[in-house]
Amino acid sequence: MINIVFFIILSLAMTAEAKNVVLNIPDEEIAIVENDVVDAEQWLKDAWAGKVSKCKERLVKKEVDQSIKDGETLPAGQDAIVSKHFARPDYKSRKQKDDVEKQK
Q: What pLDDT is stored for residue 22 in this prediction?
């Protein structure tokens, strides 16, 4: 069994926190994946990085569009735009949005 630890950096309201996520992957599953990829651990890291990149791209576009619509100034740089998005008083995570929808 391989233990894979991801260090996830969360940028929330201009603070950075690291969250450890540990995946315990049985040897057989590693062997199955490594039948198709050279290094399962690196593949997981790359998959995570790719997902973060795509989510960030969509988040930045959404915040830019909203700021333009609202006549707000935009900070310089993607990280500052991300921080601005999370600092919005009406910000809700996907889980929070889903929970609100379930209550309707």
A: 81
pLDDT tens across 73-99, in order?
999 999 999 999 999 999 999 999 999
pTM summary value: 0.75
Please name which of 103, 59, 101, 50 lies closest in space to residue 79, comparing C-alpha atoms. 59
Conformational region of residue 74, where left means phi above 0, alpha means psi within -120 to 50, and beta covers everything else: beta
Residue ranges covered by each domain of the chain: 2-103
The residue behind tokens 């926190």 is 17
Phi, psi of 25 (to 5 degrees): -110, 120
Helix (H, G, I), strand (E, B) or coil at 102: helix
